[in-house]
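Researcher: Here's the sequence for the chain we discussed earlier.
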Amino acid sequence: MILSGVKYIVALITLIGSGLFIFDSIILPIYVGYNNEHYVPDLRGVGKTEAIQTLRSIGYQIEIIPRPFDIKNKPNTVLNISPRQFTKVKKGREIKLTIAGDRKHVKVPNVIGLSERNAIFNIQRNELVVDTTYHEYNTEYLKGYVISQLPDAGDLRLTGYDVTLIISKGNPPDYFIVPDLINLSEKKAIERIIETGFQLGQIIKEYQPNLLNGTIIEQSLTQGMRLAFPARIDIHISTDIESLDTLKNEELE
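Model: Thanks. This is the structure I predict for it:
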């Protein structure tokens, strides 16, 4: 009888021990691991400081990945998260935040003499933007290489500032044909003048309220003329704003 009781107690202790082992080695780790996992919040568009505070309060480590300034993005806000938002991640794991850069002063690089491709690469590497490229004939630089730039090399500009490049078209032709500029916008007319090898002359504003504002209404050289040299072309542009001289003339009349 006593022996049977002892066996029962031993069996009970063994059972309890097995249960504790299963709890400690299997159930408890699963439970603890479950409680240590959280969904990564969607922080896109949130400010850098707020995003860091949010992740730290959960228990995550943080790595910041800065991105150059881009006018399309609000500075110092979260652009991307890795692991992605709404992913279940354990505490202590590292979360990578890609942050939009802010504007800062940078030196304009010297790209004269570089190929157009390399010039654009250098400008973008300095967090500036190639806004406009003109092409004109040039005997000093090979076709496709930068003749001139604006702003000048070494000037300080804020990141995201527009840079204009003038690219060589190689040696000029035997003659130049005057382009038709009538009814073009001012910007398009200037581009056409430079592209055809001519030089921009005077820009004259004329009050013409019945015409489309900002378009070419007259040019100093006749369209289609052939010239042996790249002459200057003056352009007259319509405006709907009366100048002071025009108002004075109307008063005298």
